[in-house]
Specification:
- The complex is a heterodimer of chains A (335) and B (303).
- Chain A is α/β, with parallel strands linked by helices and 335 residues long.
- Helix content of chain A is 44%, strand content 12%.
- Chain A contains eleven helices and nine strands.
- Chain B contains twelve helices and 14 strands.
- With 303 residues, chain B is of the alpha/beta class.
- Classes of the chains: A alpha/beta (335), B alpha/beta (303).
- At the A-B interface, strand 2, helix 5 and helix 6 of A face helix 3, helix 5 and helix 6 of B.
Chain lengths: 335, 303
């Protein structure tokens, strides 16, 4: 094996490992939800792993990443430690937001990971603003913002594409088209279902890619990110993917034909990539089992640490409500 | 003390902010070439250029959201929303993003953003252009809300808001832009965040803010001619709401009248009255000594 092919093999295995981390993390999160350790909303990324993993490697540590509410996979792929994500989802003080945000609001500003926004489409203007700041500060960073097909129906999608194009801002718009806005299928909420084609209305370059194929996503994302870097202009990449679990843990999932789910299940990104690597002679059972064991150990450690961690003391409820710019006004009435 | 219009005072505040801090920029609908719907930014485009005086499309949610994004990435944006009526289109960004990001990220982010908007009933603009919704913002933890009612406040509150690392909403009253007054020459001793007693008196305490202040001053003049001297308190900052001077005054006068352009139910007047009631045992005659003057509970008609 030459050095180049060895590097390529390492890279492929790293992609597989990242996807497997997300898969097993999500499966464990579902169990923790069933056992009552995780409460509130829980939106799993199972089936969509190739999108976050394929795109995140095309971004630098200086770039900014904004996600929507289905954000565990993006946080893991961006490098947030699994233990701080799990603790956040448990609502514990050791979480990345001290347990205040939970599943839908994972932030790590040090890693330039800006959430975790739970109002559909609301993350798009935020991303435009981050990119505007970079443009005004003559920074070479780009901002990648993830959103689903449901967000395409929000006004902020159209406004943000327009604003980013009008002001020539380096935003990589990443639409994770998983075919359903919660329970409403794309063709029942969009008059024109070819999402990436909407970019033409704003003069924005765009492409669509098979979101179940991590190599294809990576190639498309690299090209898109380079386009944003080279031109300073936005780009819309539509990754066609599918969530294999229900929308959230509350969702009885009665609106999708079984055959449809089965057809996407057959193409699910982790197993299909592993199969491909086996066929190419880059993965064997020994390696796969070692990978599974490593991931299982990481997940187990994250759960144990989260379970043992304290919750934030109630006395801290109003801490960080405001930045303290001046001495606290003793007679200001909290409201 | 120079004599300025409220509009000129806002413009001077903007000019000073832009001239002294490279991170500051102004964006909003028609703030550039048009010069601002209320002419507050006239001339600033030529002075500071299109990067710092940015005309926006009619996309309130997105340019306010972009202001939040730019603020958390190190800029000091001033976002002008043409009127408070249009701010409803950006309410999600203000309430769900600007107000929550600091707390929800456990202090990882700060949102040093200033959002200016015209509030209040102008001249016969009908139901959809006449709202006084500043108390809606004042309801939200994580925001600060300033209501300049004088030329000096119009001139100096902006700098105070920019110096504050939190999201600050400044509600400028549409009918005040043309008013003139003496403007303080320096910010020495200026405190944007506390009420001010505008006129001393002992007969009753009248609490007001924003565009109601000149009306209350005029009413007080009439009362003065009848030998009744009310004490006038301008709240100035609706959040955080500092009521100590109001309480001190009411303890002296024994009577409270809250004058507010907003609607009566759950409004500023209700808040002012309720706070007093909750904090002190009520004298038996209190109910007759506590009044609120608010807008009628209907959409404002054009007529």
């Amino acid at each position: 094996m030459t050095e180049a092919t060895a590097t390529a093999a390492d890279h492929d295995l790293a992609l597989l490992a990242q996807m497997l981390r997300i898969r097993r993390f999500e499966e464990q999160a579902a169990e923790c939800y069933m056992s009552g350790q995780i409460r509130g909303f829980l939106h799993l990324y199972v089936g969509e792993e190739a999108v976050a993993v394929g795109t995140m490697g095309c971004l630098t540590a200086e770039d900014r990443v904004v996600a929507a509410y289905r954000d565990h996979g993006h946080a893991l792929a961006r490098g947030l430690p699994m233990a701080t994500i799990m603790a956040e989802m448990f609502g514990k003080a050791t979480g990345c937001c001290r347990g205040r945000g939970g599943s839908m609001h994972l932030f790590d500003v040090g890693r330039r990971f800006y959430g975790g926004t739970a109002i559909v489409g609301a993350e798009l203007p935020l991303a435009v603003g981050l990119a505007l700041a970079d443009r005004l500060q003559q920074s070479s960073s780009i901002t990648a913002v993830f959103f689903g097909d449901g967000a395409v129906a929000e006004g902020t999608f159209h406004e943000s594409l327009n604003l980013a194009a009008l002001w020539q801002l380096p935003v990589l718009f990443l639409c994770e088209n998983n075919l359903y806005a919660m329970g409403t299928r794309l063709d029942r909420h969009q008059a024109m279902t070819d999402i990436h084609a909407k970019a033409a209305g704003y003069g924005i370059a765009a492409a669509a890619v098979d979101g179940m194929d991590v190599r294809a996503v990576e190639a498309a994302a690299r090209e898109a990110a380079e386009s944003v870097r080279d031109t300073g202009m936005p780009f819309l990449l539509e990754a066609r993917t599918y969530r294999l679990r229900a929308h959230s843990m509350y969702d009885p999932d009665r609106y999708r034909p079984r055959e449809e789910v089965a057809s996407w299940q057959a193409r699910e990104p982790v197993a299909s990539f592993a199969d491909r690597l086996r066929a190419e002679g880059r993965l064997d059972d020994v390696h796969w089992q070692r990978l599974e064991q490593e991931v299982a150990a990481e997940v187990a450690a994250a759960v144990a640490a989260a379970a043992a961690a304290p919750v934030e003391p109630e006395a801290d409820l109003t801490r960080d409500l405001l930045v303290k710019a001046e001495p606290v006004e003793v007679n200001a009435c909290p409201g | 003390m120079p004599r300025l219009s409220y509009r000129e005072a806002v413009r001077e505040g903007l000019r000073e902010a832009l001239a002294t801090d490279d991170r500051v920029f102004l964006m909003g609908e028609d703030v550039g070439r048009y010069g601002g719907a209320y002419a507050c930014s006239r001339g600033l485009l030529n002075e500071f250029g299109p990067d710092r005086i940015r005309d926006t499309p009619l996309s309130e949610a997105s340019f306010v959201g972009a202001g939040i994004g730019a603020a958390i990435a190190g800029m000091r944006p001033i976002v002008e929303v043409m009127t408070i009526n249009f701010a409803l289109l950006a309410f999600d960004q203000i309430v769900n993003n600007a107000a929550t990001l600091r707390h929800m990220t456990a202090g990882q982010l700060a949102v040093p953003l200033v959002i200016r908007m015209a509030t209040g009933a102008g001249r016969q603009l009908a139901a959809q252009h006449s709202h006084s919704l500043e108390v809606w913002f004042a309801h939200v933890p994580g925001l600060k809300v300033l209501c300049p009612a004088t030329v000096t406040d119009a001139r100096l509150m902006l700098a105070a808001a920019l110096a504050d690392p939190n999201p600050v909403i400044i509600c400028e009253h549409a009918l005040l832009y043309a008013t003139e007054g003496d403007c303080a020459e320096t910010a020495d001793g200026f405190d944007a965040w506390r009420p001010l007693v505008r006129e001393r008196g002992d007969a009753l305490t009248i609490v007001t803010s924003s565009g109601s202040l000149p009306k209350v001053v005029a009413a007080a003049d009439q009362l003065n001619r009848s030998g009744i001297r009310p004490e006038l308190i301008d709240l100035r900052c609706l959040r955080p709401l500092v009521l100590k001077p109001v309480l001190a005054s009411v303890q002296r006068t024994g009577r409270l009248l809250v004058v507010d352009e907003g609607w009566r139910t759950c409004g500023l007047a209700a808040e002012g009255s309720a706070r007093r009631r909750f904090r002190f045992p009520m004298p038996p005659t209190w109910n007759r000594r506590r009044c609120r003057a608010s807008n009628a509970s209907s959409p404002p008609p054009e007529s």
